[in-house]
Specification:
143 residues; alpha/beta; Ribose 5-phosphate Isomerase B, Chain: A; binds D-ribose
Length: 143
Amino acid sequence: MKIGICNDHAGVEYKFKLVSMLQKKGIEVVNYGTDTSLSVDYPDYAHRLANAVENGEVELGIALCGTGNGMAIALNKHQGIRAGLAWDTPVGELVAQHNNANVLVLPARFISYPKASAIVRKWLDTPFAGGRHQTRIDKIPCR
Ligand code: RB5
């Protein structure tokens, strides 16, 4: 399993903690930045991660910014991305089970690190339910 991770300045602290947590689980993590708390523009990092998921460089992605909304909006401009924002563990479960999100987005300024870690673990451990949820996902692309 290879996961990409990206963040803006608001998510940098949680990013490093999540990378350690994932590596301890034996998951390979590719870091798409940023690595300091200097102010940056979240789309620069969202697009790097989205491209990596779309071209198969990584299987899944995790993105962090202050609210999670900037990252989610930019990521979801990519046709191959289903980025889901999760702020609690049951949402992390549903974003995998119902939305088959290939990128999990976290609102770093609005949740604790233990919550962020629990959400990531739940998302990774939950299989996609398929069925009616696949039918709905198939209707997402704009025609
Ligand atoms: C940065 O201040 C903040 O705007 C950003 O992290 C994010 O919340 C944007 O949606």
